[in-house]
Structures are given as structure tokens and as C-alpha cells.
Amino acid sequence: MSSSDIDSRRGKGSKNKRSLFPLVILFTVLLMIASGVLVYLVREHVEASKGYDKTAYEMMASGFTCEYSEAQKLYPFGEGVLKVTPTRVAYLSMTGSEVYGADIEMENPFCVVNQGYALVADAGGYFSALFDTNGQLYTYQTDGAIRFGTVGTDGTTAYILEKTDTKGTLFLLDKNSVFISEWRSVESGYPLSACFSPDQTSVYVALADTDGGVVRPHMKEIGLSVENGAYTAKDLSIYSPDSSNILSVVQAMDDDTLFAAGISDLFLFNAGSSKSISEPFGQIFQVLPAGNRLAVFYSEGVDQEICLELIGADMKRQTPLVIGNELSAVIANDKLIVAASDGVLLFIDASNNTVIRTVEVNQEIIRVGFQEDGTVVAVTADGVREIAA
Questions:
Q1: Are strands 127-132 and 117-122 parallel, antiparallel or unpaired?
Q2: For an engineered disulfide with 324, which of 34, 248, 278, 341 has Cβ 3.0 to 4.6 Å away?
């Protein structure tokens, strides 16, 4: 082969190498760009994941998950929750561990919690039990079917019982199941509900009198005292507001002031006199004391949003705060109202009815409660969550 042919082939090979070199450079640049983009996306994903985990941790710092059917049985209580079933009551910590348990026999148990005490009673049945955070205090069998039950801050319990020859009986026990008093309603009307005064020296009863063909509401106050272990109960007063509507809910604002609410009516009773709200509500869903006023949750009609107003002793309507489309749970103390609506917890200042902050739970909120330090416990469709107030 001639030297000219060899040189020709070498020249062609050099040209091929030179033609591939720009492609290699371009590929390398594209690879570096892609690597940079990948690193950025991974970094952003990690940061986003850190933020999500932090939020979830804050919501579930102390809490546990459970099925919806299980959550329906849980009530915020003490530093945990009380699990109530027809056959057993168990006090669970915020990790879901059982602190104590007690066997019961009830068909339709309901639970009422007031600070350090929890009353469990059989609606339509005859058995009840009282608990504190240390265990079961007593079980009791009444001689009348239980239609209503509540518990005071000192563990005193009040039951409305169905009995023959009466329109209903108010039955009172202390926290050791010692009998206090029994008041039988013969002419005053049917007992509907009851509550204790803040100092536990009075119990108020809402009554509906249907004699005469029209409904007349009455509010009865019974004074309670104890001396040397002996209890005394006596009639103190009865209020008969000018209304033909049932006032089924009573709430004591202080030791001398009582509110009574119906479907749309609201009355205040104090010093022997009564006062009605300046303008009726559309439909009242719930009322409860909040500071020195009454928190009233209501709507103005069907498919209307739930609103909140704080009503004082002047009984004048206030500027409403829109809560949402539904009200699934609410609690209040002297400074704070916590309302659950549409999967969101609203923290509301009880002094001025403004939202301090909201917490999106993104689950159905079944119940809420306060721990002793003010921390909020929320029972949701998928578990129990602890949220700092």
C-alpha cells in the first residue's frame, strides 16, 4: 500500500474524531444541567418533607391513631381520654395505653365530663358510675329510668329519673354515692335538664309544664348544703318566664345568674327577675359559659352558616362571628373558646369573639376537651390529637 493511501485514511480518522468532540461536550453539559436540576428537586422535596413532618409531629406529639368506630367511644378526660363501651370503661393515656379499667353493664351508656370527674350512665336504664383520674369511685343502681345526668366540679351528680306517679324526679348523690336529696315533680312540669351553680351550692332544673293545653317553662333552684356530713336541700326559687316555648337547656353563669335556652329563645334569671334576649335567634345549637358571658352557637335558618355571639347580662345581640357550615364540638373556659367546624379547630378569644388562630385537622372532629394546663385534646375520626392552646 502506498504512503499516500495511509495518509489519506489517517486524515479521515482525524476528521471523524474532531466531528464527535462537540457532541461529547454538549452531552456533558446537558448531563451537568440535569444533575443540577435533580439535586435542586431532591433538596426541595427534603425540605418540604421536613415541614410536613414537623406539622404532623406538632399535631400528633402526644396522641394515637384508631378506627372511626373506636373514636366514637372516646371522651377527653384528665391527661388522656376515657373509653366508654356498654361493658367496660377504661382511662387511656395520650399514647393509648390503659391506665385503669372497670367493667360495667349498660345498654346505652353516655358520658359527661366536668374537670376531674366523669359520669357514665345508662340512658333509659338504671345503672351509673362515677370516675376520676385515679379510678372508679362508685357504681349505683337507681329505682327509676335515667333520662338525664350531669356532674358538678366537686363530683356531685344529678339525675332526672322517670318514675310512676310523678312527672319526673331529680335525684342527687355526692361523689361517694351518699344520697343528698330527691325532688319529685308533681305539678311543676316535666324535668328536662339540670346544672349546678359554679360554687356547687345550688342545682337548677329546667321544667316544661303542659297542663292547661299550652307549654309553660319553669326554672327551679334547689339549694344544697352540708354540715357534719349531713346534707340539706331546700327550695330556693322558681322562675316562670313569659314564654310558651320549651326552654330545655340551663347554664349557670355565676352563683346568682342563670341562662335558659330553647330553640330560638334565650332568657336570663337573676335576683328574682327575668330578661329575654333583645331579638330571638333563628335556631340555637349550643350554649355554654365563656368568661362572664354566654357563648351562643346558632344559625339564622336552614342551610345557613353557624355563627357565634357572646351574650352578656344586658341580653343584647352582638356582632356575630361566622364559624362554618357545621358545629361538631365545642369547649370553653374563662379565656378561650375552641369550636370544631368543617375539619378545622377555631381558637376564639372569649373576651372579644375574635379568632386567635385556626388549626386544620382535615378529619371529622368528634369531641374536644381541655387538659389541666389548657392543652386541647381533639378526638377525630382517625385518632386522638393533642394541640397546644
A1: antiparallel
A2: 341
- What domain range includes position 38? 1-60
Looking at the structure of the chain, the number of domains it has is 1
Q: How far apart are CA 361 and CA 197, in angstroms?
A: 34
In a domain, residue 5? The reply is yes
Residues 46-61 pLDDT 10s: 444 443 333 433 444 5
- Three cell numbers, residue 186: 308533681
Task: Tell me the CA distances in angstroms from 376 to 62, 69, 311, 336, one per residue in order.
Answer: 11, 22, 24, 11
Please tell me the distance from the alpha carbon of residue 194 to that of residue 206, in angstroms, as a whole number.
Answer: 6
Q: Is residue 81 part of a domain?
A: no
**% of residues, the chain, pLDDT over 70:** 84
pLDDT digit string, tens, across residues 79-92: 999 999 999 999 99
Q: Is residue 14 part of a domain?
A: yes
Q: Would you call 70 helix, strand, or coil by DSSP?
A: helix
Which contacts (CB < 8 Å, 24+ apart) does range 160-164 have?
160/191, 160/192, 160/193, 160/194, 160/205
The total number of residues written for the chain in this structure: 389
User: How far is it, in rounded angstroms, from Cα 189 to Cα 264?
Assistant: 21
In terms of Cβ atoms closer than 10 Å to its own Cβ (0-12, 13-18, 19+), residue 346 is buried
In a domain, 77, yes or no: no
Q: What is the mean pLDDT of the segment spanning 97-103?
A: 98
For residue 320, is pLDDT > 70? yes
Burial of 88 (0-12, 13-18, 19+ CB in 10 A): middle
pLDDT score, position 165: 87
